[in-house]
Amino acid sequence: MSDHSALLGPAAAELLRVATAVPSLDARTACAGYDVRGLLNHLLYWGPWLTAAGRREPYAASVAEEADAALVQDGWPTLLAKQTDELVAAFAPPEAWTGTVTLGSAELPAAVVGDMVLGEFVLHGWDLAWASGSTLSCSDAAAAAVLASATAMGVQARSMGVYGEVVQVPETASLLDRALGASGRDPSSDAVQR
């Protein structure tokens, strides 16, 4: 795993752009089991956990389970923007990508957690763009990093229900489409949406 800190800022900005453009919090997303409200709640719930890991600080959520949190209230765009800024800042220093960090009760390589943050921005950014029928702008470097991470962690992520089954995407497809397929998303969005 490498330091992908330079990729986080643009990916976070794109996530915020598509999140605030979604026309309805009740719209379906491409992320199984989540409407827009649920996916935003997911991002708002796990953001502080990931930030604390990057800062190597302890964190205890006020609500034990994501399903019990109701974080999408008035002002959620401001909260999401603040949280993504904090996440980017937490993983900006090179040392944030070295050694191990604690995420909840798990001890993980810091670079894996940093790549999880990038994956959250890119994959869930695509999910939210899909919800409004728009497209996600993603650099090839970010897509390649997400593809590598999704491939490396795929078996474990699928066993935990984080990813769906691999969607076969042609080798000639874009890096983003291949990353989406590796994470269980169908990049031919019309097959899922509408």
Automatic annotation (TrEMBL):
**Which GO terms label this protein's molecular function in UniProt?**
metal ion binding
Tell me which SUPFAM superfamilies the record gives. DinB/YfiT-like putative metalloenzymes
The record's annotation in InterPro entries points to: CHP03086, DinB/YfiT-like, MDMPI_metal-binding
User: Superkingdom of the source?
Assistant: Bacteria
> In this record, what's one Pfam family?
MDMPI_N
Boundaries of every Mycothiol-dependent maleylpyruvate isomerase metal-binding domain copy: 10-129
NCBIfam families given in the database record: TIGR03086 family metal-binding protein
Q: What name has this protein been given in UniProt?
A: Uncharacterized protein (TIGR03086 family)
Native organism: Amycolatopsis sulphurea
